[in-house]
Amino acid sequence: MKGRISVLALAALLLSGCGQSTTDPGAGPVTIDYWMWDTNQQPQYQACADAFTKANPDYKVKITQYGWSDYWSTLTAAFVSGTAPDVFTSHLSNYPQFAAQGQLLPIDDLVARDKIDLSLYQDGLADLWVAKDGKRYGLPKDFDTVALIYNKQKLKEAGIDPKELDDLRWNPQDGGTYEKLIARLTVDENGKRGDEPGFDKKHVATYGLGLNSSGSGSGQTEWSMYAMSNGWAYGDRNPWPTTLNYADPRFKETIKWFTSLIDKGYMPSMSIVTSGVAQMDAYGAGKYAMVTEGSWNTKAYWALKGVESGLAPTPVGPTGKRASLFNGLADNISATTDNPDAAWAWMKFLASPACQTDIVADHGVIFPAIKQATVRAEKAFAKQGIDVKPFTMHVEQGTTHLALIADRWADVSAVMTETMDAIFSFKAPVDSLDQANEKVNALLG
């Protein structure tokens, strides 16, 4: 990207539909700069890029991949310097701020002009990419849910039939059959299990349940499935809540129970979690018998050496239902792209059956957003020996809950990260959520 042009000028160019480009036609194909963060998904999108270029010889796609920890800071810096990519993979937590700052190109007129059928996508996903200003900024590319991943050998050693995991229940009083399972899978350095007399919670060799972080204000793979199956919701509405519910008694009792697993020695402490060893690596080393994980990481877990894994659904909660956060990614176009017609063509292809159904689904890495591609993706996973029903059952049974989209999410997240870290470290009581809730609601106000 070499220069900045106005959003109005961009819109005029896009709506002309004449295929113009700011690049000299004699200079060869237009290069579309595309950024993403997941190295596991890069091969499938490179395959889409190759198919796109074959169908559109005037365009080619340059894919740049950054790690998640660097992606957003690098992208923000690129917006400031005027070097942002033409198109980039975006996240529900981040795009509202970019849209509010005028850094994204609205695509409403383009969707209407090209008659994009939004009913192709899993219910609710397309609506998530309409910002508070009422404009659309993305088309769904995938969806994800959460399930249990377990070490088959650890279950065998504990005398547990994997089928038992299909009917787990939890409650905030004693944890139900779910906590009993976690306790049984926990083993101290002397070989005593968490449900046996003499268990030493200060010297644990294998934790029954792993932990990725305190979850900040989202808890996607940490605690959201428990809180939501306890009848809790992030706010008074979603997206764009006017108040958030972190002080709700149902949320507080959920977090109190969940952190009690740390105190009992069934789940690692925050000092272990923040030691620099990732949850996946600890699981691969046999330190965790089970983890709660997002569907996007499934293939990576199955690639771990020396571990045979299985999948199980999240437990049924006090509401009588399971729960999973329902998240989905899309691509955004930078408002300062020099090649808006090319950027739209690439975004549209990424959201089409030609990419999602014919290519992405067959790679068996993620679940494409297009409904008809789900079964195809399930078959691709099955060929790898992975039964992904514990993920897709949430969509089939209607037990999904939309990821939170809120104003000033970065500020809300900062408050909640500090608060949740303190609670999970036992440096603050669960009731500190009352004060945190006042702070985040003041931000929204």
TrEMBL record:
Source species, domain of life? Bacteria
InterPro entries per UniProt: Bact_solute-bd_prot1, SBP
Q: Which SUPFAM superfamilies match?
A: Periplasmic binding protein-like II
Q: Which interval of the chain is the signal sequence?
A: 1-23
**Which keywords label this protein?**
Signal, Sugar transport, Transport
- Asked if the record carries the keyword Disulfide bond, the reply is no
* Presence of keyword Transport: yes
State where it is primarily located: other
Please report a single Pfam family linked to this protein: SBP_bac_8
The places in or outside the cell where this protein is found are: Cell envelope
| CDD domains given in the database record | PBP2_TMBP_like
**GO terms under cellular component:** cell envelope
Which family does the record assign? Belongs to the bacterial solute-binding protein 1 family.
Q: What is this protein called?
A: Multiple sugar transport system substrate-binding protein
Q: Which organism is it from?
A: Thermocatellispora tengchongensis
